[in-house]
Amino acid sequence: MSMSFDQYMRDMVQPMRDELTSIGIQELRTPEEVEANLPEAKGTTLVVINSVCGCAAGQARPGVAQALQHDVTPDHLFTVFAGQDKEATAKAREYFAPYPPSSPSIALMKDGELVHFIERHQVENRSAEEIAEDLSSAFERFCR
């Protein structure tokens, strides 16, 4: 029995993708999908740079899920998967200047402009609850 590396990786990361898509976050898997959604999004947009690392599993994805239970949430919810959908991730990161590439990370945009950003180092050393609190505060500030 033989399985290709690409198939193995798709099978391994699917549950990590599902954690976000099952709560209503839309995946952007190509640069064209990123271009069709990010620059034209009116109002507020959350973009989660997903990854396979432990801090994405233990802190970032659960923190995002908790924050989306808040009364005030962004108008649009998107995710790209670093290391998997490389071109889409690179295209999304163009909107996050001046921040260097970081995964996992979480961006909040308003009318196409970055207004709040959580870098990997801000995920690694905080709990899911702290990340949810950070995001909820940003939602209160920018999504009303």
TrEMBL record:
Entry-linked Gene3D superfamilies: 6.10.250.2150, Glutaredoxin (3.40.30.10)
InterPro entries: BrxB/BrxA
Top-rank taxon: Bacteria
Pfam families in the cross-refs: Disulph_isomer
Family: Belongs to the bacilliredoxin family.
Protein name per its UniProtKB record: BrxA/BrxB family bacilliredoxin
Lineage: Bacteria, Bacillati, Bacillota, Bacilli, Bacillales
